[in-house]
Amino acid sequence: MNKSIRTLYIALASAFALLVVMLGYWQVVAAGGLDERADNPYKMEKQRLVDRGRIISADKIVLAESVAYREKGKKYYRRYYPQGTLASQVVGYATPQQGATGLEQQYNRYLAGSYGTGAILDRLREETKDGADIRLTLDTRVQKTAEALLSGRKGAVVAIEPKTGKVLAVASSPTFDLNQVTSDFASIRKEPDAPLLNRGTAGLYPPGSTFKVVTAVAALASGKWSASSTFDDKGVYVVDGKPIYNSGKAKYGLHNLTDALTFSINTTFAQIGDTLGGRKLGGEMNLFGFGRPTEIDLPSGEVATSGRYRDGKLLPNDQRDEDASRIAIGQENLQVTPLQMAMVAGAIGNGGRMMRPYLVRRVITPDGVVVKQQRPEEVDSVASAYIASEVGRMMQSVVSEGTGTEAGLSGLSIAGKTGTAETGDPERNQAWFIGYAPADDPKVAVAVVIEDTSGTGGTEAAPVAGEVMRTALSIGPVPGEPTS
After folding, report:
1. What are the sequence ranges of the domains in the chain?
2. How far from chain centre, in Å, is Cα 374?
3. Which ranges of 328-365 would DSSP assign to H, the alpha helix?
4. Is the peptide bond before 174 cis (omega within 30 degrees of 0)?
């Protein structure tokens, strides 16, 4: 072979090899990115060919499925949501026009069948794919109770299992019909109260006095106080020339730390925060997860980070020069999600061990193979078992004789804490309740927030929490489902 022919041969072979590499890159490696581009003309066609897996609740109710239809002799699929508005922000939607949110987005590769050894080959050919089903921890019986109790009010309810982290319900109000996304998404977006927002995981609110649970843990952990330590309330505590008052400017006189939590005495907790300082109180906040993203199986953009904010920026928890007295009572730029506060309550109920919350229990292929399974996982130890037990007993007193009596259920011990956060309007509040039940062997922990209400945490949020816990405790295991 002469030199010219050899050179031509090498050039042609190199060009062919480059073509193969580029074809493989664009069809396999970069395919996912191309699929997300709105200007990709093949995107809609490819999505319509996918028989997406179902999303099924813990009590075996189908929340999302694909329905087949024919167009010009060809078989296609569209997404259908049998329960309409139920858990809409958590389930999310998946449409070629609007993209995907919620679990539909987070578990897209499983639902769309793009997993396993066949996934690469599937990218190289256009054909119908069968997705895997995802089985949730969410129970529609608890979810329906929470949504019904929120109906007509803005707010959120989160219910979890303290010992496992399984999420039983995430209710956000107002909600929307997932089936309307394809037909009239513009109307949903125009709604004034942001129904697309998952208030349970992405809504940020001042926690008010529910944060005193964290302060109580920090107080006991410091060794400076016990549940029976005494204080003398004069009705006001002054820090840097600025007074802190109790609700209604009440005066409690001599009392102990248990009384302080039971009746939500601001001056006592402000004194504790002032004595601890920003470093020690902030260190306890770090253990509880404030200041870092909450680990839950939802898209990161749908989960807000709880902590202290200034001008929209997240601040470190443990700064020396911060007003720890006001942080200690849930003020001073604190913003939290209901999910975070449910985790706080759950950690106390679980002996000081905070578990990672999760929504999907397992992923199952059409032929019954489990390709992903989630199990309980400890995030952090926020307190010793003794301290958690002491704070738990204080929280029981809140419900039995203090500000949270409206959460009480006949014959059942509940541990909880109310909160009433200011909104800037003296007539309107953000009403909170966090807690768990049964107090001696917790099966459910909840956080409830009711927005823009004239009531308090005790009158507005506590009754909702009580009914949600009642439902969660009454459902029992699902037949045929493992209990772990």
Report:
1. 140-177+192-362+374-474
2. 16
3. 338-349
4. yes
The token duo for 253 is 């006189």
pLDDT of residue 389: 98
The partner residues of 372 in beta bridges, in order of sequence, read 363
Question: Token pair of 435, please?
Answer: 């807690």
Contacts of 109 (CB under 8 A, 6+ apart): 115, 119
Kindly report the pTM of this predicted structure: 0.88
- 50: confidence class by pLDDT, cuts 50, 70, 90: confident
Q: Report residue 207 as tokens.
A: 């926690």
Alpha-carbon distance of 90 to 97, in angstroms, equals 19
Query: Can you tell me the distance from the alpha carbon of 105 to that of 32, in angstroms, rounded to the nearest whole number?
Result: 13
Residue 428, Cβ density class (10 Å: 0-12 exposed, 13-18 middle, ≥19 buried): middle
pLDDT digits (tens, 9 = 90+) for 184-202: 999 999 998 999 999 999 9
pLDDT (0 to 100) of residue 408: 82
**pLDDT score for 125:** 46
Q: Residue 164 in 3-state DSSP? A: coil
Query: Domain 140-177+192-362+374-474, what architecture?
Result: 3-Layer(aba) Sandwich (3.40)
435 close to 386: Cβ distance less than 8 angstroms: no
Q: What percent of the chain has pLDDT over 90?
A: 75
Main-chain phi, psi angles of 479, to 5 degrees: -55, 135
Kindly calculate the radius of gyration of the chain based on its CA atoms and give it in whole angstroms.
26
Q: Indicate the residue type of 134.
A: I
The pLDDT of residue 223: 97
* Cβ neighbour number for residue 401 with a 10 Å cutoff: 13
